[in-house]
Design goal:
By secondary structure, the chain is an alpha/beta fold. The protein is 26% helix and 21% strand. The two termini are 25 Å apart. This is REM2-and Rab-like small GTPase 1.
């Protein structure tokens, strides 16, 4: 099964966080120019005259131990990234809210992404963890580190766990972490290009430093939002974004 790679910006407006009309929405996920930390039951509150639908998705983060799964989840949520690496003992979940504007209708949606991160050793030790991570998952991020060649070579094994006749169709993206440490780079651009052509899965790159909190995570979160929304439109049976009702609540 070859996925179709969506050209960035074909479903949601790319770089919308830089546009004036997005300020009202992004202000709801920021506090003193830092990202707000949302608990499981919290959500951004918009003024009554602005009706925004929230669409909920479960995203699993897959990858070898030490590639930066926990750091990526923290980065995407705008939280402080732990300085020390420690193996995640069980399942950790992080909630990320991200407003995105649909290109065709101009409608704004809040994407509520619940990121699931589970330590590799825990997954190996406890058979029930992977099925519960997979259950109702809408997307999976396969991670490799630019400083660890074996993590890149392991991608096909990671992807194999999510493909097969009984597997639910999920959005798949690959994220290369530690891209800022190019001095120690073990994975060449050519390898990344070849991989993308072979598998038809978009590959995104993430460095380690959090800068303005939006610009460095926008490409990945927009790509995720775009692919999830497109996936739902196709699943709704039409492939056209017009056929969905104006208010759609996804389970």
């Amino acid at each position: 099964y070859m996925a179709q790679v969506l050209p960035p910006g074909s479903v949601v407006v790319a770089d919308w966080h830089r546009c004036k009309d997005s300020k009202e929405y992004f202000s709801k996920i920021l506090h003193k120019k830092r990202r707000k930390n949302f608990g499981l039951l919290e959500s951004p509150v918009m003024p009554p005259h602005v009706a925004v639908d929230t669409v909920h998705y479960k995203v699993f983060i897959s990858g070898k131990s030490g590639v930066g799964k926990t750091a990526l989840a923290a980065h995407l949520a705008g939280l402080n990234i732990p300085n020390m690496h420690y193996e995640t003992t069980g399942i950790e979940t992080t909630v990320v809210y991200w407003p995105a504007k649909l290109r065709e209708s101009g409608r704004v949606l809040f994407f509520r992404l619940q990121l699931w991160d589970c330590g590799e050793n825990a997954l190996r030790r406890f058979d029930h963890l992977l099925p519960s991570c997979k259950e109702q998952a809408d997307a999976v991020l396969f991670l490799f580190s630019f400083t660890d060649r074996t993590s890149f070579d392991d991608l096909s094994n990671q992807i194999a766990k999510w493909t097969g006749p009984s597997a639910r169709r999920v959005v798949k993206l690959v994220v290369g972490t530690k891209f800022d440490l190019y001095m120690h780079c073990d994975v060449a651009e050519r390898d990344v290009r070849d991989f993308q052509e072979t598998w038809g899965i978009p590959v995104l790159r993430m460095g380690g430093e959090v800068s303005d909190g939006l610009g460095d995570v926008a490409p990945l979160l927009n790509c995720l939002a775009e692919n999830l929304w497109h996936h739902d439109c196709v699943a709704a049976g039409s492939g056209s974004h017009h056929s969905l009702p104006e208010t759609v609540t996804l389970p």
